[in-house]
Amino acid sequence: MSSDADKRIAALSPEKRALLLKQLRQQQAQQGKPARAPVIASRPRDGSPLPLSFAQQRLWFLDQLEPESTLYNIPLAIELKGELKRDALERAFTALQERHESLRTTFRTTEAGPEQVIAPPSPLTLDVVDLRALSGAGLQGELYRHMREESLRPFHLTRGPLVRASLLRTQEHEHVLLVTMHHAISDGWSMGVVIRELAALYDAFLHGRPSPLPPLTLQYADYAAWQREWLQGETLEAQLKWWKEQLSGAPDVIALPTDRPRPAVQGTRGAKHFVQLPREVSEAIKALGQKEGATPFMTLLAAWQVLLARYTGQDDIRVGTPIAGRNRAELEGLIGFFINTLVLRARVTPELTFRQVLAQVRERSLGAFAHQEVPFEKLVDLLQPVRSLSHSPLFQVMFILQNAPVSELVMPEVSLRTLRVEAQTTKFELTLSLSDTPAGFSGSIEYNTDLFDAATVERMAGHLEVLLTAIVANPDAKVGRLELLTAQERQRQVVAWNATCTAFPREQCVHTLVTAQVERTPDAVALDFAGEQRTYRQVETRANQLAHRLMKLGVGRGSRVGLCVERG
């Protein structure tokens, strides 16, 4: 592929690029030419069973094991400043619910397995909490308490609803809108659809106009049925063959140096350390990727895998990454659980240059995008990794590069700004999540608090920034020699920790100093080796015995005595 073509591909949106690459890969004979996916058709709503997608079925199964888990809650908090009309907002939510069946979906268990159940539309009323009596720190504390508690309130997949919305009124013309969905009916992309369509509907209803949104020709249940029918037989086997070649033989567990041992059962308690890369480093990362025909996603992923290789000492690194799963235009405007997880493997040996690692990551990413339809659940079934409750299968570390922030949207006379909802849970041991902002790449490292201390992850974030700075300065440097330590850490390790000089009377001989120490602490341990210890009194006694023995053999002052002893 020419350099010019590479750059043109790198400039495409992730979804268009994935679709193009999928079509190119399907034309290659060595990939087995997987069959072209059929058109997704709308299914009649005549009472026939509506199957779950593969991803939904996995969450349904996990919910059977742990029904009160909040691990798959997707919280969103939006600050609204301006003259908000609550009735128009409630009408907008009601219209959104009527428009998207997924917002009215629950699940039931039958003899044939779980099914989707779509309830008829019904008016939505926002729960309103008035916090105007509070101010300052008291208001902020109460606000964040509500945000935290709402994000941790469980859903019931069989009863529903699987979406909640409430409004916190903080001042006369300031509100915070809390929207929480269960992952079984939504994903990160869907939250963007929710906010975008809510804004359009609110604008229309506020001014007495009908909905401006075109009718949907498909619903998520149509996609789930299509996926079940298409991904089977030869089609599925051709895709699985590629993944098996890519992932077989890799280590089951990444050997991260944790602050505490992995517990027998993996915990889900999590926290976040926020990351902000300098703008100049961020721009240099993009420029390097463009020169190499790689996207920012590929360049940052390669750096993350280099950092993990340096931390673990392993040269075979598998990282999970979510992909939108919307490589068909008719799926882009739907709310639903389309996201899939890809497993990206890299061989990172110390003698490789970063440019070589990036070329490898680029090639494997392109192949993964071309075979992205295979559900993660099928990969687990295919590869049969060692199952353990102490870690997740196939990978334990994730990388995410967000593409479409929703904070730039506006409503009439109301400004919108998304607020951070502090992580209380985590699915993986480490997750680096970044977004491309005007100030540079920013985001967070989410971590499992059963394994890592906050200070450890803070140091890791510093190492990542130093590593990226070194990479853009010299991408041809060997990755085993790229700088990791911050200036403060280097000063501490190279200078402070090596400041071991100790003042002692230089006019005295060593044996005189030892004798003085014996007089001060005769029973203190002087030597400790191979499980045996000697006190200062014992050392002096043995030394005197040896000295008298040598004197009897004729050794005097100034004589040279050879030593032949074992190392110790």
Tell me what the structure shows.
With about 575 residues, the protein is α+β, with helices and mostly antiparallel strands. It has three domains: about 50-220, Chloramphenicol Acetyltransferase (2-Layer Sandwich), CATH 3.30.559.10; about 235-405 and about 415-500, Nonribosomal peptide synthetase, condensation domain (Chloramphenicol Acetyltransferase, 2-Layer Sandwich), CATH 3.30.559.30; about 510-550, no CATH class. About 40% of the residues lie in helices and about 20% in strands. Strand 11 (about 410) and strand 12 form a beta hairpin. The longest helix is centred in the last third of the chain and has 20 residues, at about 455-475. It comes from Corallococcus terminator. InterPro entries: AMP-dep_synth/lig_dom, ANL_N_sf, CAT-like_dom_sf, Condensation_dom.
Please give the CATH architecture of the largest domain.
2-Layer Sandwich
* Helix fraction by DSSP (H/I, runs of at least 4): 25-40%
The largest sheet has its strands arranged as 4-5-6-1-12-11
Name the CATH class of the largest domain.
Answer: Alpha Beta
Total beta strands: 16
Average the pLDDT over all residues and give the rounded result.
89
What percent strand? 15-25%
Radius of gyration: 31 Å
Shape, please? elongated
Class per helix and strand makeup = alpha+beta
Domain count: the total is 3
What's the helix count?
Answer: 16
Distance between the termini: 61 Å
CATH level 3 topology of the largest domain = Chloramphenicol Acetyltransferase
Q: Profile the largest sheet.
A: 6 strands, mixed
**CATH superfamily heading of the largest domain:** Nonribosomal peptide synthetase, condensation domain
Unreliably modeled segments:
27-34
Region (Disordered): 24-48
InterPro entries: AMP-dep_synth/lig_dom, ANL_N_sf, CAT-like_dom_sf, Condensation_dom
Domain AMP-dependent synthetase/ligase: 516-567
Pfam family, one: Condensation
